[in-house]
């Protein structure tokens, strides 16, 4: 029998197919099962108008048959089959797809949903097989034919025997090496797992003889092994069913099984979109983050399917980082796949789906916030940090999408509130949204800098996460209300008369303030009287764009060593109404105690801010000296 050479630049192209196009060798099974599904789709489509086709949709099947002794793996179907010329054209010409031609021929039929389009998936078999035989009999033919090839050197076609229409693809697997264990593709567990992973929702049953155990007849303890013909795939995707068909239990069980969670999700989103890009999406928000969610190892993304066949396990382009907690899948027949179908081409369809999903996720979260406050707060405690990072990382670009979803602890209400809720109860005269930064809410509320704001009756947002102040800086304002830190230089809450009286007092004590600043010798930019303190003696504030809280966060980062520690422009503010200031004013400016008192007040302010004291021993000695 004469061997025929592949058409086109066959040897080079086939070598490229085998060695370069596919990332994972296991993909070969997905490709062969998809081809079998397409063959049955074509015959089923024909049955709609041809009475000679006696098979209904329930009569079609795919069978996987591993033979460990012969080291062969067979994938069989009872689809349309191929004649000799079709074997020649479809398998002898690389990158020519019979399925693609079929799709073009019936492009007007919207119900047709076949998978193949590139004509290269079949050749992925050579990644694991040293030779491949295809025995096929066309539906309306009595003669079967066998196509056989050992790779790029060519192929043969010869008459063969097959009892019914359909196709057998028989792979003789390569020998195992230290790097690759090709024999695993003959193991029941591996085959079942790959079907479940990639082809679980092919619409036809994928059958295989599966080994099971049972009690021996008449025995209460002795088991025997036996083979049973089993269906490996689910066939009907849950997400393609109507919501009316499904119960909460259906959704919950699907989520827990597919995404390996031990409890039902907090929220589910099931949507079907028809239009320029049609797709089904089934999304879930877990009740708790996975153990590695906030680690670098966690990989976000949605599973991507086309016509029920999984293309990617984690499609990152469908989810922004700030919605990385969402788990689920998208299924669309309208996507432009690359030649290996392992990844998606970056095109308009993908962008449209991603944009729609972002809006849908936000809408569902907003609905949860309005209808089940307790559940939303539970969600926010688990995943709110990612939303805040989304505000910061986007440099404000994600403001409209995220600003109504974030929450902060209210000092007045003693609970989490949204920015909308904060603004809704602001007194008419309040012009800004005030916030305080600290390690805990209690420390934020008790900061001396909050005293004037609280005296005015204004609420304060407690910022306790490292990213919080950075996120608000990116927002800049909410509903035209600017954000203002209670530690800012001037809160502008005094009347003109109060401002003038304060300026006069600061001028009166200018020499004392200069002496205190000189005593601190460059540790602070300035020492001045405070208009915001009511009960506390001192506090630290910052001039310039870098706040003291930002200084702490940035200096705690591991990559901030090259340029040295960052430092905010610190200002020590003293309460002019406090007895401490009266005691300072009574001292002569050349009294050596003045320098000690200045250092004590500065160290006190550092402690209040949660900053380290530069010389703890000196601080201790000064306190002891006061106690003598």
Percent of sequence in beta strands? 15-25%
How do the strands of the widest beta sheet line up side by side?
5-4-3-6-2-1-7-8
Structural class of the helix and strand makeup?
Answer: alpha+beta
Mean pLDDT across residues: 86
* Shape call: elongated
Number of E-type strands = 22
- What is the CATH H-level superfamily of the largest domain? Histidine kinase-like ATPase, C-terminal domain
Tally of individual helices: 19
Give the end-to-end Cα distance, rounded to a whole number of Å: 112 Å
- The stretches of 5 or more residues where confidence is low (pLDDT under 50) are 97-104, 110-119
Rg, rounded, reads: 36 Å
Report the CATH topology name of the largest domain: Heat Shock Protein 90
């Amino acid at each position: 029998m004469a061997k025929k050479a592949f058409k086109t630049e066959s040897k080079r192209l086939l070598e490229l197919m085998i060695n370069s196009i596919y990332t994972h060798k296991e993909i070969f099974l997905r490709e062969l099962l998809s081809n079998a599904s397409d063959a049955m789709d074509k015959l089923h489509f024909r049955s709609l108008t041809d009475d000679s086709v006696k098979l209904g949709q329930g009569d079609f099947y795919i069978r996987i048959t591993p033979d460990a002794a012969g080291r062969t793996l067979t994938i069989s179907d009872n689809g349309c089959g191929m004649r000799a010329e079709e074997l020649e054209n479809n398998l002898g010409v690389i990158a020519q797809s019979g399925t693609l031609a079929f799709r073009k021929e019936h492009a007007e039929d919207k119900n047709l949903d076949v998978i193949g389009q590139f004509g290269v998936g079949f050749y992925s078999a050579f990644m694991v097989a040293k030779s491949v035989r295809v025995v096929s009999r066309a539906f309306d033919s009595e003669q079967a034919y066998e196509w056989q090839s050992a790779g790029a050197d060519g192929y043969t076609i010869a008459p063969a025997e097959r009892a019914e229409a359909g196709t057998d693809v028989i792979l003789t697997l390569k020998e195992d090496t230290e790097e690759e264990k090709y024999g695993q593709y003959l193991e029941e567990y591996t085959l079942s797992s790959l079907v479940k992973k990639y082809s679980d929702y092919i619409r036809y049953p994928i059958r295989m003889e599966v080994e099971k155990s049972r009690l021996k007849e008449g025995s209460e303890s002795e088991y025997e092994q036996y083979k049973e013909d089993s269906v490996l795939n689910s066939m009907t995707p849950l997400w393609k069913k109507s919501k009316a068909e499904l119960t909460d239990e259906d959704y919950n069980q699907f989520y827990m099984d597919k995404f390996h969670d031990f409890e039902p999700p907090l929220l589910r989103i099931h949507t079907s979109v028809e239009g320029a890009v049609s797709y089904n999406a089934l999304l879930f928000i877990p009740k708790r983050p996975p153990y590695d969610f906030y680690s670098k190892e966690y990989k976000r993304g949605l599973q991507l399917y086309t016509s029920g066949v999984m293309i990617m396990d984690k499609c990152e382009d469908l989810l922004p980082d700030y919605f990385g907690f969402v788990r689920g899948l998208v299924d669309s027949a309208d996507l432009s796949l690359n030649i290996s179908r392992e990844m998606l081409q970056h095109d308009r369809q993908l962008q449209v789906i991603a944009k729609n999903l972002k809006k849908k996720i936000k809408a569902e979260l907003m609905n949860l916030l309005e209808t089940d406050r307790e559940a939303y707060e539970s969600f926010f405690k688990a995943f709110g940090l990612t939303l805040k990072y989304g505000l910061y990382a986007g440099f404000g670009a994600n403001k409209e999408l995220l600003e109504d979803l974030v929450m902060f602890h209210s000092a007045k209400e003693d609970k989490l509130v949204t920015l909308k809720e904060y603004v809704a109860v602001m007194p008419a005269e309040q012009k800004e949204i005030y916030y305080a930064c600290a390690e805990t809410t209690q420390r934020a509320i008790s900061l001396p800098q909050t005293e004037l704001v609280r005296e005015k009756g204004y609420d304060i947002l407690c910022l306790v996460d490292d990213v919080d102040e950075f996120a608000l800086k990116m927002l800049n304002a909410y509903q035209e209300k600017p954000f203002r830190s209670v530690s800012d230089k001037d809160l502008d809450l005094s009347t003109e008369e109060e401002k003038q009286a304060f300026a006069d007092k600061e001028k009166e004590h200018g020499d004392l303030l200069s002496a205190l600043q000189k005593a601190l010798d460059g540790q602070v930019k300035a020492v001045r009287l405070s208009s915001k303190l009511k009960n506390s003696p001192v506090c630290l504030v910052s001039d310039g764009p870098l706040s003291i809280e930002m200084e702490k966060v940035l200096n705690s980062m591991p990559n901030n060593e090259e340029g040295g520690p960052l430092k905010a422009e610190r200002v020590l503010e003293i309460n002019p109404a406090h007895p401490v200031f009266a005691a300072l004013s009574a001292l002569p400016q050349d009294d050596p105690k003045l320098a000690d008192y200045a250092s004590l007040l500065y160290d006190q302010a550092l402690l209040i801010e949660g900053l380290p004291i530069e010389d703890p021993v000196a601080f201790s000695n000064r306190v002891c000296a006061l106690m003598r």
